Amino acid sequence: MQDDVQPVRSGRPRHASIIDVATLAGVSPATVSRSLRGHHNVSPATRQRVLEAAEELSYSASPQASGLASGRTRTIGLVVPFVTRWFFANAVAGAYQVLADAGYDVLLYHLGSAATRDRFFERMPLTRRVDAVVTLALPLDEEHTLALRALDMPLVTLGAQIPGVSSVRIDDAAAVRLAVYHLVHQGHEDIAMISGDQDDLGFGFLSSQDRCEGFRQAMASAGLRAREELMVSGEYGIEGGARAMTALMAGPTLPTAVFAEYDELAIGALRTLRRASIPVPGRVSVVGMDDHEMASVVDLTTVAQPVLEQGGTAARLLLEVLDRGETEVVDVVVPTRLVVRGTTAAPHPN
Amino acid sequence: MQDDVQPVRSGRPRHASIIDVATLAGVSPATVSRSLRGHHNVSPATRQRVLEAAEELSYSASPQASGLASGRTRTIGLVVPFVTRWFFANAVAGAYQVLADAGYDVLLYHLGSAATRDRFFERMPLTRRVDAVVTLALPLDEEHTLALRALDMPLVTLGAQIPGVSSVRIDDAAAVRLAVYHLVHQGHEDIAMISGDQDDLGFGFLSSQDRCEGFRQAMASAGLRAREELMVSGEYGIEGGARAMTALMAGPTLPTAVFAEYDELAIGALRTLRRASIPVPGRVSVVGMDDHEMASVVDLTTVAQPVLEQGGTAARLLLEVLDRGETEVVDVVVPTRLVVRGTTAAPHPN
DNA sequence: ACGCCGACTGCAAACGGTTGCAGGTGGGCG
DNA sequence: CGCCCACCTGCAACCGTTTGCAGTCGGCGT
């Protein structure tokens, strides 16, 4: 009865296995493996035959099996807070390009919501799935740091620093100084700062803290006081900046300039100002940070940083560890640059 | 000499294996496997013991091994042209959330450059790595379509259609109509269209074709003629829109309205217009599409589509196939909505 | 009291490669 | 002309789970 073996799932292509290739090429599976992975100890003639057989069967090794046997996955984990943000999307794109070119696959971990983030750190899905990890501007929370180190695999951070871990970043304090000095040189004294909400998703980004601190220092070294009532925050994104600006406008005195930790916040602030018909830069100057793609559109003065490039650099750092066994931890600091556009001017003599 | 086995890589945690758990719990590996995966044929007491042992050793199964044995990867491939674009980033975020909640990992394939894309289709790295794929607004090129189908695994497209494949999308023609009729009702007759460059990366996006066609139809059904010299294109992104607008301005007659296939193009066009001091909407009205986050900032009239939601829907479609064996191919069309802002008005009586 | 049955559990064979080790072969050198 | 040694290649033991099949055991129907 049931020897009537009907090929129910006949559609399944049933990929060729290494044995098929070996048989076709008339060699052993071991030789196929060595040939295909470019090992040196295979004669050219044999290799050629294997290559042809593999081609013929359009064979490609099962990543699972080879991973299991070799202990490596040829996959790298990218941990991102919000892919939808310009900065992160570009960093991902930059890293991806380099990794893909090097033949690695990229597993994306998006911590966009608190629930997702918690599950991430709880289950640490990276455990045996990847060979290395790059984390983008992730929080330093003690527990999280430990969880990451516990993975005990190559790790690079972008836009953040963890002791003993390689990183790629800008000098946040210096970048902020660029922005603040620009305003100061124009004669501003009442300068407000809009920062990303520290409690945004339940964690604050590292650079956020650095930038706030940098702001205070820059103000101080310019002989000005960073008034705490002029330091407000909003959740990450345009809306956050808009709300923060609203808060600022509700205060007793409107500052003559606003520095925003990210362009998206600055842009939100601009929207609020425009809707309130407050002239920019006539009454309030605005300067942001990152040089978001949209900055040129709203003519925003900002501090530019090379995001795509940082992503690429982070990836390359990882590859060096992976492929060349490089072991030194490095801290790459890339330069920033003030881009003066139309949202800043001398304060109104008012 | 070398029996002096120095534990060079002593740091390696050497994850607990299923055998360790089995030993500790006093059962066989098979029972551990069954217990952990919630199979029904394990007695509660045994299961409990296994769970504790696993917890104790903080065991988690090797994805590689279980993938190899079970034939599935618990991973889904996301194929994206440009993560850095608002639309794609949001679609990814939407899909990610759903997939992560369902316990799937996400492998990202970013086709950002021509080289990467070619390599992708040539090597089809998805082959044994994922259980299913969602492609975002990818081209229909005959060869590529075949390559995707050849994978012979569940597939869902977002913002595109392939015969016989489930999809999530908007009705592009209808959406365009919304925009065009809005302009027409305001009295515009000379309406230009800026579209994404078909030869952008060597391929045109599907929706691009649909939207151009939709534009022609909408114009026709409004009794107007879509003048080919008023249909220009630019590469994807703000700069493309800016250049396209420049081209338009160089033409013999400046149209009274411009419809852009994407908000990013529209925003680029706005920048050009503003820099040229051409009043918007006084002299030229502009309407875009997508309701990009920045649209509210530049006060752009546009046609909104729910991107995050579409990503989620696409993911859910996939899960239904994967988890419930659903086999019907569906085509989910989500609604769009005209958002009138400040870049459109009746044409200047000039 | 005995056979039958269902509920659990263990055995062992895959899954598809990688790699240390050993064997075979031909060439170069003494 | 024989020996030693590279250089190739094959053998077989893993890598860590999943799963079909078979065996065990207690309880229940008759």
Radius of gyration of chain A: 27 Å
Q: What overall form of chain A do the CA principal axes indicate?
A: elongated
Oligomer: homodimer
Order of strands across the main sheet of chain A: 2-1-3-4-5-11
- Ranges of chain A where pLDDT stays below 50 over 5 or more residues in a row are 1-12
Alpha carbon gap, first and last residue of chain A:
98 Å
Rounded average pLDDT of chain A: 89
Written account of the structure:
2 copies of one chain form a homodimer. The first copy, chain A, is 42% helix and 16% strand. Chain A is α/β, with parallel strands linked by helices and 350 residues long. Chain A folds into 3 domains: 18-61, 434 Repressor (Amino-terminal Domain) (Orthogonal Bundle), CATH 1.10.260; 75-170 and 307-334, Response regulator (Rossmann fold), CATH 3.40.50; 172-305, Rossmann fold, CATH 3.40.50. Chain A has a 6-stranded parallel β-sheet, with helices on both faces. The radius of gyration of chain A is 27 Å and the shape is elongated. The model of chain A is unreliable at 1-12 (pLDDT under 50). At the A-B interface, helix 4, helix 5, strand 2, helix 6 and helix 11 of A face helix 4, helix 5, strand 2, helix 6 and helix 11 of B.
Q: Topology, pairings included?
A:
The structure is a homodimer of 350-residue chains.
Chain A: H1 18-25, H2 29-36, H3 44-56, H4 63-70, E1 75-80, H5 86-101, E2 105-110, H6 114-123, E3 132-136, H7 142-150, E4 155-158, E5 166-170, H8 172-185, E6 191-196, H9 206-221, E7 231-234, H10 238-250, E8 257-260, H11 263-275, E9 285-290, E10 301-304, H12 307-324, E11 331-334, E12 337-339
Helix pairs in contact in A: 1-2, 1-3, 2-3, 5-12, 8-9, 10-11
The structure holds a DNA duplex (30 and 30 nucleotides).
